[in-house]
Amino acid sequence: MANEAEKNPGILLLGAGLLVLLGVMGTVWLPYFDDSVVTPTDTAKIRNYPTDSAEARGKHVYIREGCIWCHSQQVRPVKADSKLGPVTVPGDYYYDKPLTTMTQRTGPDLMWVGTRYSADWQHQHLLNPQKIAGPASIMPKYDYLSEQDRNDLVAYLLSLKPAPQKK
Amino acid sequence: MAQSTVQGVPARIPKGSATVKIFFYTSIFYLLASMVLGLVVALKSVNPEFLTSNRFLQEYFTYGRLRPTHTNTALIGWLTSVYFGVMYYGVPALCKRQLWSEKIGMFTAVLWNINYIAGAISILAGYQTGVEYAELPLLFDIVVVICVGLTFWNLIQTTRHRQEKILYVSMWYWLGSILNLAIVYIIGNLPVAWIGSGSIQMGYYYFYLHNIIGLWFTVVGVGTIYYLLPKLVQRPIYSHKLSLIGFWMIVAFYSWNGPHHLVNGPIPVWLMKAGIIPSILLLIPVWSVLANIIGTMKGVWYKVSQNLALKFLITGALFYGLACIQGPFQSLMGPHAILHFTYWTVGHAHMPLFGGFSFVAFSAVYYMLPRLTYRHIYSRALMNWHYWLSVIGFLIFAFAMWTAGIIQGFEWMDGKQLGSAFLQMLESLHIFLISRAVGGSLMFLGQIAFAWNVWRSVKAGQLVTADDPILVSR
Questions:
Q1: Residues of chain B found within 8 Å of residue A103, distances taken between Cβ atoms
Q2: The total number of structural domains that make up chain B
Q3: Cβ contacts of residue B431 below 8 Å, gap of 6+?
Q4: DSSP secondary structure string, B217-272?
Q5: Is B426 close to A78, i.e. CB distance below 8 A?
Q6: Contact (Cβ atoms closer than 8 angstroms) between residue A71 and residue A108
Q7: Any idea where the Cytochrome c domain is (chain A) (predicted)?
Q8: Model confidence at A149, in pLDDT bands (50, 70, 90)?
Q9: Would you call B48 and A130 a contact, using CB atoms and an 8 Å cutoff?
Q10: In a shared domain, residues A24 and A100
Q11: Residue A165 within a domain
Q12: What pairs with residue B463 in β-bridges?
């Protein structure tokens, strides 16, 4: 049978709220105290774009057009990521605002895409992915972007590379 | 004006709550909209040229803007709205009184809808924030929190002035979930500038991404199961204690689950462990729910074949259980290394949200609508069409995604991670992407049957009679 405490919505809400906040403390707040999380790496410094630089505007285009929904930016120490380049560490994302690791890899990972292709290739590929990458590509054409937006986006993509000393 | 305006219904029976009706009707609109958006996204994955005939469509209906609009319309538009409707109906029912303030309720419902529609348009217009499931710009987030606050206040006041001393377990789940929603939504939508560095944001975003499901959709859904099941089978829940244990375990363990989305990723190992261990422990509350359902159903399983609302409810509970077997499995480092980033997660995400809790919500609408409009559901045949198209469509959809995900994972391990090798892998997925669109189309057809049935019920459903049992049991 129900006891007295069970009839009290105050106890219920206080308890539930505290338990949820405990999880928040553990997984959201505690990382502030981990050096590996709060120390920027050299790679992170490459991604620390000055306000209103081409790269910063390009990152905005990258999010606005939803490139994030098909391209991850995260290389894991696992076999499935073995050819993608250096494994990423927390500090690499230090200056990312907002973060663009994301959760889908419908297209290839772009963490280090700046080391792979030239500016010219990127422009041609954005205009017509099927022509440049192959007819099987399901990437939309971004020929509707303004010249400025496309230049910024390519500048951003080319900036995505590891710091030199990270082999 | 008389208390009742429905012909043939005794005057002592209160008029159905307008707040609940607004939430129910608009949620069904969003359900259809999210299905259309999802289908367009699926077709664009089959053929990227789909719906790109002019510059306007190209820009505003590009895949990358449609996808977050689809997820938001399903999560915020459909499931959250229908959940609000369920709670605005269920809390007063369990308190044996009217909603504390119908006016505030209606205001909340209208504000909620205007806000969501404007928010969805802003995503299509290019203002998405880039944070998964939290794509709405800040302005709309603030209004969401206001609406959640108003709902919380309204339902708490209803609870404080209740006529029934006992707080039935559904009340626990519902009231707790509204508080959870406020906490989770605020943390997940804090402006980037306040949070700090990118590596810190991971904690916030993945906490939100996971717990909008775990602490909101799950908790309301389970509370709704506990509300509907005893009504539909006409016997008390098997174990009251078990349902309370489940409640405390959900709030205790779910809130830790965020980091399991970053297993093998750029977070410290201790944080991965802090995410994985509670993910495994989640099996306890999930099984407490399922055990309670099985216990309650013992000896009356035959009723599933007679009562269509019960059929939806039990199917929803089954898919919820299956999703929660997948979840802990995926959170382990080995399976995660193969399945993360693949289409598997798309299949997995749809299992609790469509197969699980949308089915619970369908059951709730079928149960509650006659008690709001005093008209019976128009057509049992349409309910069956809704059920079977949804189940079969979902299974085709989900198995296509799971298979595609496993192929992706293993092909990547074979080295097909970049360039032409990646495209080769992509080609082998084509048939599964087509299957997804086929499954999705069936799901959509099912929802058309649902929407049509609701429309016809409200307009032309058979009126309840004065001695109808639904007038007694809310």
A1: 132, 209, 261, 340-341, 345
A2: 1
A3: none
A4: IHHHHHHHHHHHHHHHHTS--S-HHHHHHHHHHHHHHHTT-GGGGGTTSSS-HHHH
A5: no
A6: yes
A7: 53-161
A8: very high
A9: yes
A10: no
A11: no
A12: B375
From the candidates A3, A21, A37, A121, which should be mutated to test the interface with B, based on the most B CB atoms within 10 A?
A: A37
Which residue of A1, A8, A19, A153 to mutate against B (max B Cβ within 10 Å)?
A19
Cβ proximity of A81 and A109 under 8 Å: yes
Question: Are B232 and B313 a contacting pair, CB within 8 Å?
Answer: yes
Residues A22 and A46 reside in one and the same domain: no
d(CA B467, CA B473): 12
Q: Which domain holds residue B105?
A: 15-166
Complex prediction ipTM: 0.94
Q: Residue B453: is its pLDDT beyond 60?
A: yes
- Cβ of A134 and B420 within 8 Å? yes
Number of domains chain A is built from: 2
Q: Would residue A50 count as lying in a domain?
A: yes
Whole-angstrom Cα distance, residue B20 to residue B57? 35
Given a cut of 50, whether residue A1 has pLDDT beyond it is no
pLDDT digits (tens, 9 = 90+) for B136-161: 999 999 999 999 999 999 999 999 99
User: Which of B173, B197, B219, B333 is the best mutation test for A, with the most CBs of A within 10 A?
Assistant: B197
**Of residues B62, B165, B176, nearest to A7 (C-beta):** B165
pLDDT tens column, A110-138: 999 999 999 999 999 999 999 999 999 99
A145 lies in some domain = yes
> Tokens standing for B131?
């944070």
Residues spanned by the domain of A8 = 1-33
> Cβ of A112: how many Cβ atoms within 10 Å?
18
Give B425-444 pLDDT, tens digit per residue: 999 999 999 999 999 999 99
Mean pLDDT, residues B450-468: 92
| Closest Cβ–Cβ partner in A64, A95, A134 for B197 | A95
- With beta carbons less than 8 A apart as the criterion, state whether B82 and B24 touch: yes
Per cent of chain A over pLDDT 70 is: 96
Q: What whole-number percentage of chain B has pLDDT above 90?
A: 92
Sign, CA torsion B420/B425/B431/B432? negative
Write down the pLDDT at residue B2: 37
Q: Which pair of structure tokens corresponds to residue B332?
A: 């382990």
How far does the CA of residue A58 sit from the closest CA of chain B (Å)? Answer: 14
Give me the CATH number covering residue A97.
1.10.760.10
Q: Mean pLDDT in chain A?
A: 93
Q: Is A127 in the same domain as A46?
A: yes
Q: Is A166 domain-assigned?
A: no
Q: Are residues A94 and A29 in the same domain?
A: no
Selection from B391, B389, B370, B352 nearest residue B24 by Cα: B370
Domain identity same for A56 and A112: yes
* Structure confidence by residue, pLDDT tens digits, B83-111: 999 999 999 999 999 999 999 999 999 99
CA–CA gap between residue B288 and residue B320 (Å, rounded): 12
The residue type found at B262 is L
The tokens 């909209």 sit on which residue? B33
Q: Spell out which residues of chain A touch residue B265, defining contact as CB-CB under 8 Å.
A: 74, 76, 88, 101
**What distance in Å separates the CA atoms of residue B348 and residue B440, rounded to the nearest whole number?**
15
A76 and A116 together in one domain? yes
